[in-house]
Specification:
Elements (H helix, E strand, L loop, with lengths): L1 E4 L11 E11 L4 E10 L2 E9 L2 H13 L4 E9 L8 E9 L2 E9 L2 H18 L2
Antiparallel strand pairs: 1-2, 2-3, 3-4, 5-6, 6-7
Helix pairs in contact: 1-2
Length: about 130
């Protein structure tokens, strides 16, 4: 289990995902990824679960289904910041929420973690701008 620290935006009155712990398991018979996450949302600690065709999809589905968030991932891209196996990766995630588009960026040595950071960043921006 790895902790992902996501820096909150705005004041305490803004409902945000503040931190997240996740484990990922793959069920080969279902050809889907299962994710279980502990996070703080609107000041309350929650344990949520979800399935998807990949880890980012599973995280997005868990957030939608368990927290009532309504968003669609419109675009996603990633690349390394340096050369070599210890390089950090950066991901860019664009979502649409309530007719508005928001971008998030995530950086980590693990591309999936960077992707989750990017998604959470975009969601937090959408919640701040509601």
């Amino acid at each position: 289990m790895r902790a992902l620290s996501v820096r909150p935006l705005g004041g305490a009155d803004v409902p945000q995902i503040v931190w997240i712990l996740h484990t990922v398991h793959k069920y080969f018979t279902m050809a889907q990824i299962f994710v279980e996450m502990q996070l703080v949302f609107k000041g309350e600690k929650k344990l949520i679960k979800g399935f998807g065709n990949g880890r980012l999809d599973a995280v997005a589905n868990a957030l939608r289904e368990n927290l009532g968030l309504k968003f669609e991932i419109l675009d996603y891209s990633e690349h390394s910041l340096q050369e070599g196996s210890t390089s950090q990766a950066i991901s860019y995630v664009q979502i649409e929420c309530a007719g508005k588009r928001h971008f998030g960026v995530g950086i980590d040595t693990d591309i999936i973690t960077a992707s989750v950071f990017g998604l959470i960043s975009a969601i937090n921006l959408s919640l701040k701008n509601k």
